[in-house]
Amino acid sequence: MNEAEKISNLDEPRLFEEDGIEARVAVLIIPLLKPLGFRLVRIKLLGLNGLTLQIMVERADGSMTVEDCETVSRTVSPLLDVQNVIERKYHLEISSPGIDRPLVRKSDFFQWQGHIAKIETKITIDGRQKFRGTLTNITQDGFTLNTDKAAYGETMYTFIPFCDITNAHLVLTDELIRDALKKNKDLNKQLIPEDNLNISKQTSNYKN
After folding, report:
1. What architecture is the 7-95 domain classified under in CATH?
2. Whole-prediction pTM
3. What SS3 state is found at 13?
4. Is-contact 126 153, C-beta < 8 A?
5. Count of CA atoms in the C-beta half-sphere (13 A) of 184
6. What are the pLDDT digits (tens) for 62-101?
7. What is the distance between the alpha carbons of residues 107 and 105, in angstroms, rounded to a whole number?
8. Contact 188, 63 (CB under 8 A)
9. What are the boundaries of each domain within the chain?
């Protein structure tokens, strides 16, 4: 991958974004991530360990190491403290997307074509708003989902426009694990054990 392609990947917009507190966090940290060679995948405020702010990040090639997580944590944590976005005690978790990753950019769908995903849409398509199936026939406008568990009367093949998606992520399968580990090996990274599918760095932030 040449430098122009890396820049293009870092600049690729996400298909859907956060709202509320998560959106405020995104606005603050995205300008800090890009100069370091990272891009935001997803932000979620979870009711884990009291309260956990989970920030998923990756490099343009999809890789993420423990050292990368530590770098991002050291970079964004002071700003979040100063801005006081979350006015109570919380845990900050910086993590890789993991194998059963969210699909947030068009390039994610192209990269993982042929694998099973769960999709949610903001409008009803073929009588449904939740889908599960294999990603096929991906274009710049959308993709066809080959439904693997269609109920009686439901269509097996559904075209879903990118503009109508509200949530999407891969489904963990043996085939996905093998493919993800191969991609990881091709990037000259250490193989991820099957019982440790995410790399993450957690810190605790305390608010008065």
Report:
1. 2-Layer Sandwich (3.30)
2. 0.85
3. coil
4. no
5. 22
6. 889 999 999 999 999 999 999 999 988 999 999 999 999 9
7. 5
8. no
9. 7-95, 106-188
